[in-house]
């Protein structure tokens, strides 16, 4: 309808981002939605063909996008997190990856009929599983921690190295076929070493400039991306195919420099990465020739995809994990789950362009072949992971783990009380200082933005059934609940009451349920904690019912949650009146009045006339609890005083 490059670019970006939203909204793999959308507007209905309309720009756009995507992926390779690898993970990302490369290359040559050069390139490329695909599947299936960690870290580690392995395979095959001399091969390795050095130096310079404040805040993200592209192009001009190595080295160096300012450009970096991945994926699928697309159903390609799923992947896992403590069931699940992602398709498009330019005609099938494997693995593994994991008894039980967003004195106290029930708890805050109280109590905590796309690269949110948004920003709390609604369900998302007064009517975001009865803002909760209020647990019995507890409780108390007899947690909300029975426990934030009375009674018994006067006790208990405990002879910690 609109025959222009501008319209094609607009449509590609629009379809890509719309597909991402549909995937988020309906909890579907984004790659499947984008693939279907790209095929519909491209080879099926013929609305656009980006490769034709962009002409000579098509290749450079793909190349630049791949460079930025690989750089962004390598920023996740923090050695501090990799050091904790267990033996199975280390084996899978080394021995397993090598076996998968060799076996996949043989399958590509003998089953798909590709030349050795193209086969070894695609074999190296297909060792990647892709964190952008595997992480949503793990969240959906709720796997046990060890299996989930292995699959997650395999995807993160091998993701940027698949393309590099393809580069080295390409050069080595050319040497074996006498297309290049030994001197030329050695020159390539020398250029590769220079590319690594260039990326390392660039990371060092830009990282130190960030830390010294030599670059203003608003220029950090633009300058970083300019440097990434410059390093890529400069290295690639010296020796083709070494640019990918340079940007990967740059990303890894920056990831391990402990840069405090790297978080400042995180959102922009993620936004660009999502935009590029979405656009490039739609560009590649929309540019597929209908004839090439039909080759997906070629019996040889079908055999190749079948071999990759049912032979190559299980074989690489079983051999590489010999001698480890993985059980047979864990090996079966890990050997089955290996969805290839967006990086595999975008990088294959990059290599397809290079190989076609060098005269490898069978490289024309590279994108279609990659698309067949990507779509098959995403659909098969995406829709079967939950079923297979349950059959193998590798899913977590329906625990009442709680993730608390927002660090504060009250949040730390609430988290401690939840931890005491035996349930998992995690506190998250964007600042180190915000988690000070959590660290004092030895609680599990993480500094970072829960709304960041990269959050699950660093922490596993699977054990947490509930999420409580308790920051001092109401709008941020609402965004957290809205963002996690498709994953956790709105019934498991809560936020503290709004503290903006009449301005609450201006909020249009549908957040989570309001916390506690009566509803109270985080500011109110903090004031009470500093005034000496304590979190108290009261066990209900047949003699002491829930009705009696409600009748006798302090007017100022805040009902927090019910700990059921089976260990599950239910949070109080103003919208729903919970019921409790004998065996359940009520956890509430109460004034220290009853605690003072009980401590006074005990001190009178122990010390007689020398006991501290009630008025002095009241003063002490309205100060910091640690100070109070110092001055009360023989006093137990407040949290250990019985409610009855």
Automatic annotation (TrEMBL):
InterPro entries: Cation/H_exchanger_TM, Na+/solute_symporter_sf, NAD(P)-bd_dom_sf, RCK_N. Residues 623-644 are annotated as: Disordered. Its main location: membrane. SUPFAM superfamilies: NAD(P)-binding Rossmann-fold domains. The keyword Disulfide bond does not apply. The chain crosses the membrane at residues 6-24, 31-51, 57-77, 89-112, 118-138, 150-173, 185-206, 218-235, 300-321, 333-356, 368-389. Signal peptide: none annotated. It is a multi-pass membrane protein. Residues 13-391 form the Cation/H+ exchanger transmembrane domain. It comes from Sporosarcina oncorhynchi. This is Sodium:proton antiporter. It is found in: Cell membrane.
């Amino acid at each position: 309808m609109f025959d222009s490059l501008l319209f094609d670019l607009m449509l590609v970006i629009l379809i890509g981002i719309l597909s991402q939203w549909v995937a988020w909204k309906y909890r579907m793999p984004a790659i499947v939605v984008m693939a279907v959308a790209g095929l519909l507007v491209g080879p099926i209905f013929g609305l656009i063909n980006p490769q034709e309309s962009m002409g000579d720009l098509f290749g450079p756009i793909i190349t630049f996008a791949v460079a930025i995507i690989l750089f962004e992926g390598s920023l996740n390779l923090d050695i501090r997190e990799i050091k904790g690898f267990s033996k199975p993970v280390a084996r899978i990302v080394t021995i397993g990856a090598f076996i998968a490369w060799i076996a996949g290359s043989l399958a590509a040559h003998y089953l798909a009929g590709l030349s050795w050069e193209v086969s070894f390139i695609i074999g190296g490329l297909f060792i990647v599983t892709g964190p952008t695909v595997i992480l949503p599947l793990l969240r959906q299936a709720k796997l046990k921690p060890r299996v989930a960690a292995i699959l997650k870290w395999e995807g993160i580690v091998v993701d940027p190295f698949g393309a590099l392995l393809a580069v080295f395979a390409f050069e080595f095959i050319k040497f074996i076929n006498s297309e290049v001399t030994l001197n030329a091969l050695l020159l390539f390795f020398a250029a590769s070493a220079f590319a690594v050095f260039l990326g390392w130096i660039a990371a060092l310079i830009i990282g130190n400039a960030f830390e010294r404040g030599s670059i203003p805040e608003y220029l950090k993200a633009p300058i970083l991306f300019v440097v990434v592209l410059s390093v890529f192009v400069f290295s690639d001009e010296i020796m083709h195919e070494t640019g990918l190595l340079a940007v990967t080295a740059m990303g890894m160096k920056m990831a391990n420099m402990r840069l405090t300012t790297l978080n400042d450009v995180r959102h922009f970096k993620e936004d660009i990465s999502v935009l590029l991945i979405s656009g490039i994926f739609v560009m590649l699928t929309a540019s597929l020739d209908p004839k090439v697309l039909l080759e997906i159903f070629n019996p040889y390609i079908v055999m190749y995809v079948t071999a990759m799923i049912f032979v190559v992947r299980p074989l690489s896992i079983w051999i590489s994990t010999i001698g480890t403590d993985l059980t047979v069931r864990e090996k079966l699940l890990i050997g089955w789950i290996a969805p290839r992602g967006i990086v595999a398709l975008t990088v294959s498009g990059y290599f397809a362009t290079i190989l076609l330019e060098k005269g490898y005609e069978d490289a024309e099938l590279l994108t279609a072949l990659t698309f067949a494997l990507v779509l098959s693995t995403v659909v098969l593994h995406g829709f079967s992971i939950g079923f297979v994991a349950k059959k193998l008894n590798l899913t977590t039980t329906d625990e009442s783990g709680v993730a608390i967003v927002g660090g504060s004195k009250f949040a730390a106290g609430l988290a401690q009380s939840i931890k005491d029930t035996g349930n998992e708890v995690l506190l998250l805050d964007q600042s180190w200082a915000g988690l000070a109280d959590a660290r004092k109590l030895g609680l599990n905590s993480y500094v970072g933005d829960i709304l960041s796309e990269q959050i699950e690269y660093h922490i596993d949110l699977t054990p947490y059934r509930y999420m409580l948004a308790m920051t001092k920003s109401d709008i941020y709390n609402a965004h957290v609940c809205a963002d996690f609604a498709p994953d956790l369900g709105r019934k498991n998302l809560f936020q503290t009451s709004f503290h903006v007064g009449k301005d609450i009517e201006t909020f249009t975001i549908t957040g989570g349920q309001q916390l506690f009865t009566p509803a109270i803002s985080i500011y109110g909760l903090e004031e009470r904690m500093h005034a000496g209020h304590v979190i108290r647990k009261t066990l209900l019995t047949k003699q002491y019912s829930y009705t009696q507890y409600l009748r006798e409780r302090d007017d100022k108390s805040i009902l927090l949650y019910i700990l059921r007899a089976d260990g599950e947690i239910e949070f109080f909300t103003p919208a729903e009146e919970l019921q409790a029975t004998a065996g359940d426990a009520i956890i509430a934030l109460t004034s220290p009045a009853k605690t003072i009375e009980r401590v006074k009674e005990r001190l009178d018994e122990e010390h007689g006339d020398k006991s501290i006067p009630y008025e002095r006790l009241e003063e002490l208990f309205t100060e910091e609890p640690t100070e109070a405990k110092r001055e009360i002879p023989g006093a137990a910690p407040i949290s250990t005083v019985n409610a009855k």
